[in-house]
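If it is no trouble, can you show me the amino acids of a protein and the tokens describing how it folds?
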Amino acid sequence: MDLPLSVTQFASGGPMTVLRPATGPNSRSGVRRSGDRYQDLIGWSAAMRVMHPTNDIQRLEIEVNGVGNIDDVVLRSASGRHHYAQVKWTTNPTNMIDHSYLTKQDTKKSKSLLQKLFHSWKKLTTAGDPPVMELVTNRVLDPGDPLLSLLDGRTDLLNPAARLLTPGSAADARLNEWAEHLSCTRGEVLDMLDSLHFKPGLSISSERDRAQSLMLANGLLGDADALDRGIGIVTDWVLEGRREITLDDITMEVERMRLRSDDPRAVLLIQAIDRDPNPGDATVALDWVDLYEEDSPPTRRQPRDPADWAAMSNDIDDAVARLRSQGFKDVVVRGAMRQATFFTVGARLAQVTGTNVSHVRFGMPWASNAPRIAVPDLQRSLVPIDAGNHLAVAIGMTDDPVPAVTAFVKATNLPVRSLLALTPAEGPNDQSVAGPGQAVAYAQSLRNAVRAQLESTPAERVHLFLAGPGGLALLLGHRWNRVAPTTVYEDLGSGHGYTAAFSIDA
């Protein structure tokens, strides 16, 4: 069935489209229509890539002829390699991309997905057009497959790992199976894998967030209603048989649908604890994943080498300088990162420099210049430490960090006079910040509370500990001025304390 939608009105005044639970089993037509809408969502993001002034993409093509079976979404580059995407949807995202899925043939005369990809690669390569092929899907990759499990998260490619297989290994045998299935040489399979990017696990929610960020980057409205209108534009192109879509075509539809809101923005992508499947969307992209301890996003909390915090800080400074050199004053911040990084990025893109920042959270843009919506006064308490003349600040919007922060400050002998604890009036909870207007108000109130404490009892340095939405940390850092030099800490998980991450001149 179609994805069930509803529109909820938030206290911030902005609507957000949310997905309701399905009311029954999926019908064949429902699965097909859901897949079409997923493909149109991917197509709208591609249209936004064409529209951004920093890209060299000439046009978008949808279900175009002459490119084999990777025709769902094609981006034609003015100077680089063209991108060809095959979009695959499943109503059950736990269905995997595995050997069976890639090699299954419905009939003896039909082609498997792997065969379709291979023949498309040969067709495009023969035509003298070295392709970038993408398998875009909400399916997950089979972690138990000896070959597919070698996918490089930095490039979405199986090479160079597939070229370096140990003879006789399970992965080596799998590669030979693919060659036999494709009736080609092993070398041809490896050559195809130089071009084939696997992009698994792209959920509707993550792709909607991506599309909304790209809309904001193009100076368009970025709310859920605007996104749905954008997806509808792609649907109409398909129904009308429009195959080649130029920048002028996209601009005309944007104006017709009244989606224009502001000037184009930059996209700053911070890949701290996980990589983004579409780093090419960004004006500037940073990738720190390999610097972190552990192997999964939930467990990545600090770099292996503490000196890398300084390197990451320098990376942020360099990224901000690049954005400013290009004249951008509005920046969309994307990526998987933790509290301290959100805060530091906001601080380096400071409000006092005339910069605005925004971040899409659960389908809603949180912008630093969103109209303020009043919030109740914060709860404020002061815990004496009496070990120096610094001030520790524990902000607990979603959890109460005070016991853990107090224990950490004492155990590490930080030179702290007192710990200022700030929480919402109703206490910490995961719904404490309803939307962008409240986030702006809380950012102002939190900063002002720290300023007031420093006015009454000056301190040489602030030690900042955060527990709340990343978007709020971004907006708080953005407004963190006329305070004191600040060290912001990263939470290492329950019972494991904190680590000093970044230093802010404020």
